[in-house]
Amino acid sequence: MAEPLLSSLPAPGARSASLADVAHLAGVSTGTVSRTLSRPDMISEPTRLRVMDAVERLGYVPNGAARALSMRRTLTVGAIVPRFGSSSFPAMVQALETTLAAAGYTLLLSAPDPRPSYETSILRALLERGVDAVALLGAEQPQQVFAMLAANRTPFVTMWAPPEAGVHCVGFDEYAAAALVVDHLADHGHRRIGYIGGRTADSERARRRLRDLSLAIAKRGLTLCDDALAETEHGFQEGFDAMNTIAQRQPAITAVVCGSDYLAAGALAALDQAGIEVPRRLSVASFNDNDFAAFLHPPLTSVRLPIREIGEQAGERLLAQLRGLDAPVARALPVTLMQRSSTGPVPD
Amino acid sequence: MAEPLLSSLPAPGARSASLADVAHLAGVSTGTVSRTLSRPDMISEPTRLRVMDAVERLGYVPNGAARALSMRRTLTVGAIVPRFGSSSFPAMVQALETTLAAAGYTLLLSAPDPRPSYETSILRALLERGVDAVALLGAEQPQQVFAMLAANRTPFVTMWAPPEAGVHCVGFDEYAAAALVVDHLADHGHRRIGYIGGRTADSERARRRLRDLSLAIAKRGLTLCDDALAETEHGFQEGFDAMNTIAQRQPAITAVVCGSDYLAAGALAALDQAGIEVPRRLSVASFNDNDFAAFLHPPLTSVRLPIREIGEQAGERLLAQLRGLDAPVARALPVTLMQRSSTGPVPD
DNA sequence: TTGTATGCGTTATCAA
DNA sequence: TTGATAACGCATACAA
């Protein structure tokens, strides 16, 4: 029905303008145009003006592929982001993007679906696109990924992921986070607690989280109750279902720890629906990876994970490598306890 | 401390292998190698094997920049995503990514910060990178953006954004969504209602949302109360604050409509903290853009917006254009009412 | 300060 | 089926 949008700006039947076109129109050489755009200070005022005018009139946009081919770099950083839509990754990515953008780099995102070892084909796509560096977001990366990166001499950093030996890695102290939650609960008199977290079979991070929690619990002489343990994907629905499953078993617990905001939200909804009052009959604590745990009803005690900070620091690590300062660093950021609630003392 | 990961795969002090290297090792021409990789069926078996072997041994990865330069396309689609971290965009992006990936395209994401007209520089970066098409996610795009796209003959689609005349656009029927909420509330006897939504000064979408809601409200003979109206950014904190502000005025309303999940979550937290029972004293309804409104406490009535579907359809529109079938289409997806709660009847 | 010419790694055209 | 070779658009070393 409607005509295609053809504003009359570009020459009616041609492809977009090139350096040569600009040079021609301005009556100079391509080299001069190139320099005018990249280092204007090396060009005389009158020439510069003529060139800029031609650029303007032609609506010239440089061809990045040609530039990349010539310069052997793309000013692009690739990021591999599993489970893009959920949890804390968006915030991490945004922080990363901002940090890199400040240095002139653009972020190229890829979200692999969970097919096993699909990461390598994603990584391959990134490498073919000539990314100058790669950020690995909290994924379980097959060893082959690191091999490919090494083979291509591509700088990279892992974010919120198990630190590999000698690899740039930015995360936080997982044990400290677990201890923070456990100490808080113990201080309020809780002895027997449950846990809803990620699948330990699928994720090294989930394994560490559970392990650290167990350690912290043992250290304080508490009990992690087997019948109040659930492993699931991350999400509202999943937290809801997991909490229902646990509640059916009527375990003898007074507190539940949730691995993420989404799980906590789902769990709280399930408890509410089941008429189990929080925190009077059951306290809920969580690892807050999304800055919204604080707004859940009822307010929960949560450990704020430094998500945004991870993104920033990872960006800086990447930039350091791109500048040639690439001593591998594993950096652990501090965690803090956000206590907005009257986490219940043990009920009678 | 640790040695850098240098597996012995690549030649110790060289840059990565090129077609020529592979050709040399396999004893064929570069043309043959190129064809072997792109159309193996046109190559004799023995040659093919020799080439593949060389590829393997050198760990050859094609140079995308060179390919793009030669082929004049990148198999890349750019997306401009405002307010990356919040609300419904991640789900939309993921759906878009999946749809495009199935057709061999990669998505290149850019998240402009809210600086005005920053979009044009973002778009410029995308165009320089040679994206074959662009997806505009629900942003207010300055007219200049469309001009740039037209000048570059770059296919594009707007998602969940005001339809521009003659432009590919995928959204949903905003008025129908508003009417769904209003009818539901009216059917439960509510007469006077409030609204927490986006800033109408900043966003055409917010303006339409408010306008449609007003229309639907008028049509049912209800009243949208001025003193129960709040405009704000989207987010938990913002919804929390807005609800508090409204509550202080003690408006004579029995229901509040929230523009998004995040706002609704914040509003519910505020009501809870203020001791205002939902839905006994105040009903809350929302536009559910994130599939989690249903899990909020207490459950709310919400209109599910077809976020994922927008992403899918937008991807398909883009692909259609890339294949040359580019009759502009404005597509409106249906909306549905999710009623999980006992949206309160009017209290006494 | 400006112009010339070469290389970047592919794809594609045209012969062989 | 394969090989040589010309684009592709830009940056840059070298000349002027």
Automatic annotation (TrEMBL), chains A, B:
Domain called HTH lacI-type: residue spans: 17-71
Keywords: DNA-binding, Transcription, Transcription regulation
Entry superkingdom: Bacteria
GO molecular function, a single term: DNA-binding transcription factor activity
InterPro entries recorded: HTH_LacI (IPR000843), LacI/GalR-like_sensor (IPR046335), Lambda_DNA-bd_dom_sf (IPR010982), Peripla_BP_I (IPR028082)
Name of the featured protein: LacI family transcriptional regulator
Organism of derivation: Variovorax guangxiensis
Taxon lineage: Bacteria, Pseudomonadati, Pseudomonadota, Betaproteobacteria, Burkholderiales
